[in-house]
Amino acid sequence: MSLLEIKNLKVRVEDREILKGINLTLNAGEVHSIMGPNGSGKSTLAQVLARRESYQVTGGEILFNGKDLLAMKPEEAACEGLFLAFQYPVEIPGISNAYFLRSALNAVRKYRGQDEMDAMDFLPMLREKLKLLEMDDKLLNRSVNEAFSGGEKKRNEILQMAVLEPKLAILDETDSGLDIDALRIVAQGVNAMRSPERAMLVVTHYQRLLNYIVPDRVHVLVEGRIVRSGGPELALELEDQGYSTIESVARGASPA
Amino acid sequence: MSSNTDAIRELAQREYKWGFVTDIGEDRAPKGLNEDIIRFVSAKKNEPEFMLEWRLKAYRYWESLEKSHAEPKWANIHYPPIDYQNSSYYSAPKQKPNLKSLDELDPEILRTYEKLGIPLAEQKMLAGVAVDAVFDSVSVATTFKEKLAEVGVIFCSFSDAVKNHPELVKKYLGTVVPYTDNFFAALNAAVFSDGSFVYVPKGVRCPMELSTYFRINAAETGQFERTLIVADEGASVSYLEGCTAPIRDENQLHAAVVELIALDDAQIKYSTVQNWYPGDKNGKGGIYNFVTKRGACRGKNSKISWTQVETGSAITWKYPSCILQGENSVGEFYSVALTNNYQQADTGTKMIHIGKNTRSTIVAKGISAGHGQNTYRGQVKIMKDATGARNYTQCDSLLIGDKCGAHTFPYIEVKNSTAQMEHEASTSKIGEDQMFYLRQRGLKAEDAVSMIVNGFCKRVFRELPMEFAVEAQKLLSVSLEGSVG
Ligand SMILES: Nc1ncnc2c1ncn2[C@@H]1O[C@H](COP(=O)(O)OP(=O)(O)OP(=O)(O)O)[C@@H](O)[C@H]1O
Ligand SMILES: [Mg+2]
C-alpha cells in the first residue's frame, strides 16, 4: 500500500480552480520533489494535504496510509503523521518555542495513546535535535518564530519535524531564505530523517537543494497540473532550460 | 474556519462550574435601603459609634446622588436601572459568634470552599498563603492569624479590625476612596458588611502571600465588601483576591471598595482573579461588578502594583488606580480582561503623578469573544510639580470572531513639560493562519485558541504569583469556551 495516493484532485479558491486534477503516489521510503513556476499551485497542494479549510476541494480523493485524508481535520492529519514545513512560518507571540514543541508532541502522543512526555524527558531529546540542526539554545526560550530571521524560521520548521517524527513530511520551499551553510546543515538534517518508513514531498525552485536531498522522483507542476515527471535529472534539465519549453508543451497537450 | 468555529463554540458553551448554591441558614436584613437598615447592619456588627456615623454620612450622600439620578453613566456599559430597594443589604451565614477555630465553622461553608479549591483547612494549605474568606457579606475565617501576628502583621476581617484596631481603621478608612468619591463608593461605605484588613508594620516584609476569597451565595443580596491595606514605612506585602458566585438568573450587584496605602519605601502588590458568574450564553443573569480600587503611594520610593485577571461578571466597571504622591514612587497596572457571550467590561486605570520622578506602567490586554464588549479606559495625569515623571502604556486588544467589540479610551493630561510619555496600542484578530499553524502541529482547535490567548496575556500573567498564574491560564481557557463565532 502506498503512503500517499492523490487521485484526480481538484481545488478551488474563491471561484478560481487552482488544482485541476492532480495524480500522485508516494510510497514509504521515497522522496519526491515538486517544482514549478510561481503561482502554479505547489503551496496550494501542500496546504490541502495539511487540510487547510479555506481551500475548497471540488473533486478527487486522497488516501493517507489508507485513510481518507480529506475527511480529516488539520490536527487529525497531523496526529496521523502528516507534517508541513511552511513556506511562511507563523509567529505565536508569548508562547515559548520549547513549550509549543512539547505541547505539539504531547498532542500527537496522546492521539496515539502514548504517555505525555514531561519536561525532564523532553528537554534532553530536544537538545539532541537542536544539535543536529546546529541551532542556538536561545531560540527555545523565545516566542515561536517571533522576530526570528527568515533562515531561523525555516530551520525551526525542520526542528519541529525532527521532534514530531512524521510519516509524511511536506517541505514547502524550506531552502528559500537559507544561506549556503544553513542550506547544507538543514539538508543534512532532512537526510538524517530519511528512512524506509518515512516519505517526503519537497517543494523547491532550485536544483541546489536537490544536490543534497536527492529525490527519487521529480514532478513539474504547471497551472494546476503535473505536466512532467522524471528522475533527479529532470531537475537539472529545468535548471538549464527553465519552464518555458515544458509550459508550451503542456499548453499544446491540454489547451485551457 | 468551520471546525475552528465549532471548537470555539463548544468551549464557550461549557458551563460555569462554580455555580452551585450552598444550603446554609442565613441571617439577613429585610429588603430595602434606609437609615434603619444602616443602623441594623452596624448594630449586627457591634460597631463603635464612629463607624455608624460614617456609614450614615455616606448613606445620606448616596441618597442625594440617587435622588438626582447621579449613578455614573459615562462608562461604555449598558444595563437596566437597578432597583436599590429590591435587595437585601445584609446576609450572614448563621453560625456561632466568635469562632475559636475552623472546626467550629459550618461544615457546609467549609465544603463550599473546598469545592472552590480554596484550602481553608490549615493543614491542607498551600505553604505560605494565608486566606481570609468572605461568604456573602461576612468574613468566615482567617487562617494563619497567629503566624502573621508573630511578625506584627495584622490580617483579619474588616469587622475584627473595627473592633480590635479602631485607631488604625479610623486613621486610614476613606482616606484614599472617600465616600464622596462616586455613587458606588458611597453605597459601599453606607452598607459594607465586611472585607479584609491588612496592616504591615514598619520594616516588615510579610512572610507569606495574603489572600481573600469572596463568595456570593445568597439570592437577592448584593455584596459590598471593603478592603483596606496599609504598608507602613519599609514594609511590603503581596495580596491576592479571588471570587466566585452561584448561577442565578437575576443580576446581583457587587460594589466593593479597596484602599491601599503605601508609606515611605513600602510596596504593595495586589492581584485579582475575578471570576464572578458571568451570566449564561444568552446574557441572562450574572454579577454587576462595580468596584472602586485605588492605591496611594504616600511615601517616597513607595510602590503599588495592581494585577488583575477579569474573566467573570456580566458587567465589570473598575479602574484600579494609583496616586503617586511620594517622590520616586511607582505605580503599575497589569490587566487581562476577557469578555465572552454578552459580557461587558469597561476597565482600566488612573495614574496620577503628583511627586517628582514618579513612574507608572500600564499593560492592558483585552480579549473579546462572542458578543463581548471590552473597553479600556485609562487616564494618565502629570501634575505641575511632577518633574521627571514617566509613563509607559501598552494597550492591546484581541478579537475572537466578528460579533464582539474592543474600544480604547486613553486620556492623557500633562502639566509638566519634563514628562516622558510612551503609548503603544494594537488591535488584532486571532488569525486563521495562526490557528492552522498550531492545528497542523497536532493541537485541537480549542487548545490552539487557548495557546494564542495565553501568549497574548503573557506579559500580565508574569506578574501573578506562580500558582495563581497557572490558575489564571486555566480560567482563561474555560472562559473562552465557544468563542470564535
Ligand atoms: N487564499 C487564496 N486566495 C486567493 N488566491 C489564492 C489563495 N491561495 C492561493 N491563491 C492563488 O492560487 C495560485 C497558486 O498559489 P500557490 O501559493 O499554490 O502557488 P505556488 O506554486 O506555491 O507559488 P510560489 O512558487 O510563488 O510559492 C496563485 O495564483 C495564488 O494567488
Ligand atoms: Mg508556494
Briefly summarize what is shown.
The complex is a heterodimer of chains A (256) and B (485). Chain A has 256 residues and is α/β, with parallel strands linked by helices.
Keywords:
A: 256 residues; alpha/beta; six-stranded mixed sheet; four-stranded antiparallel sheet; 10 helices; B: 485 residues; eleven-stranded mixed sheet; ten-stranded mixed sheet; 23 strands; binds adenosine-5'-triphosphate; binds magnesium ion
Describe this structure in words.
The complex is a heterodimer of chains A (about 260) and B (about 475). Chain A is an alpha/beta fold. Chain A is built from ten helices and twelve strands. Chain A has helices at about 40-50, 75-80, 95-110, 120-130, 140, 150-165, 180-190, 205-210, 235-240, 245-255; strands at about 5-15, 15-25, 30-35, 55-65, 65-70, 80-85, 90-95, 145, 170, 200-205, 215-220, 225-230. In chain A, the strands form three sheets. A six-stranded mixed β-sheet of chain A has the order 6-9-10-3-11-12, sandwiched between helices. A four-stranded antiparallel β-sheet of chain A has the order 2-1-4-5, with helices on one face. In chain A, strands 7-8 form a two-stranded antiparallel sheet. The model of chain A has no long low-confidence stretch (mean pLDDT about 90). Chain B is about 25% helix and about 35% strand. The longest helix of chain B has 19 residues, at about 50-65. Chain B has helices at about 1-10, 35-45, 50-65, 105-115, 145-150, 160-165, 165-170, 185-190, 430-440, 445-460, 465-480, and strands at about 25-30, 90-95, 130-135, 140, 155, 195-200, 210-215, 225-230, 235-245, 250-255, 255-260, 265-275, 285-295, 305-310, 315-320, 320-325, 330-340, 345-355, 360-370, 375-380, 390-400, 405-415, 420-430. Chain B is built from eleven helices and 23 strands. The chains are: A alpha/beta (about 260), B alpha/beta (about 475). The interface between A and B is medium-sized, with 31 and 27 residues. Magnesium ion binds near residues 42 and 172 of chain A.
